[in-house]
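Private note to self, pasted from the team thread so I don't lose it. Backbone tokens:
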């Protein structure tokens, strides 16, 4: 009896959290337009991919990524053409000023394990830069550059990995920035975003290969996880474990379940003039986090005899744990 009740409670709790999330969350989509030539914009949708509006359409120059600093009410946008990371009001989208300048083609931005902002330089020397969250340059962590770098993620040991769009590979670096060699050097055409699954596999969006590809913890190719994704760039995770992936080839944001099955368009082709989605960010409307934290999937923790708990993914920015009492037999 307890097992049946547990399954029911998990089912309803998961759907309740999903419903609450949809009511309060927003999804932001970076539109690279016609790449070097625009038009460029940042779009905002609700948690269901509806009620879209243009959030930012000025002070952009081939935008690449979106990152919220919640305690400052600031959103950062990296701009490849201008070499600038620009600051905007996170509520209104109004331009505030520059967070950093003189960056060599900034693309992906992620908060690292130590709380610094990692910025990929797709141009220039291709080294990974780190910034304080006030915009002060800390260092160029790596001495080996990665040309046209677009994707970054960390493994469980703190090593980080950077993808090269033009060289069609993924390089591995130690937590101190030491180059540990090529992790992947085959079966890719033009890799963009990368992320680690909980089992240690690395997933790679392959822009020209029109697929999401899977590699094991040693870099061995395991095959295609999702096919039929032309010009794929930009990935985000919903609380129920579904994936949102940008498809420039269809000018849409597509939704997939955790097994890679296509569920439909989260943002329909061409909505609000959308051309080339290259970054997607989920933001909790009630977030109290200091900054946006790299995405994690919803995790169900092991239940005790009388309780079980659901831990929300870190990207929600709220470390609240929800407890549910087991009903008696």
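Design output:
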């Amino acid at each position: 009896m307890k097992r049946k009740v547990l399954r029911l409670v998990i089912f309803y709790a998961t759907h309740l959290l999903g419903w609450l999330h949809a009511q309060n969350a927003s999804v932001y989509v970076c539109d690279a337009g016609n790449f070097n030539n625009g038009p460029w914009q940042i779009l905002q949708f609700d948690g269901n991919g509806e009620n879209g509006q243009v959030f930012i359409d000025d002070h952009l120059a081939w935008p690449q990524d979106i990152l919220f600093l919640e305690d400052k009410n600031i959103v950062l946008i990296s701009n490849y053409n201008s070499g600038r990371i620009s600051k905007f009001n996170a509520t209104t989208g109004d331009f505030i000023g520059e967070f950093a300048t003189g960056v060599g083609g900034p693309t992906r931005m992620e908060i690292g394990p130590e709380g610094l902002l990692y910025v990929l330089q797709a141009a220039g020397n291709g080294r990974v830069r780190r910034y304080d969250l006030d915009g002060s340059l800390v260092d160029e962590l790596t001495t080996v550059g990665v040309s046209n770098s677009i994707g970054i993620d960390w493994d469980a040991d703190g090593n980080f990995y950077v993808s090269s769009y033009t060289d069609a590979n993924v390089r591995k670096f130690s937590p101190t920035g030491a180059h540990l060699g090529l992790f992947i050097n085959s079966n890719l055409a033009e890799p963009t975003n990368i992320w680690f699954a909980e089992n240690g596999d690395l997933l790679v969006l392959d822009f020209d290969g029109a697929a999401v590809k899977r590699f094991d913890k040693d870099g061995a190719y395991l095959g295609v996880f999702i096919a039929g994704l032309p010009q794929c760039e930009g990935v985000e995770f919903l609380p129920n474990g579904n994936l949102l992936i940008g498809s420039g080839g269809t000018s849409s944001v597509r939704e997939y379940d955790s097994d890679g099955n296509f569920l439909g368009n989260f943002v329909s082709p061409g909505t609000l003039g959308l051309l080339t989605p290259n970054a997607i960010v989920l933001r909790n409307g009630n977030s109290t986090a200091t900054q946006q934290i790299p995405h994690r999937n919803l995790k169900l923790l092991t239940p005790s005899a009388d309780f079980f708990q659901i831990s929300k993914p870190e990207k929600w920015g709220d470390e609240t744990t929800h407890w549910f009492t087991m009903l008696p037999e």
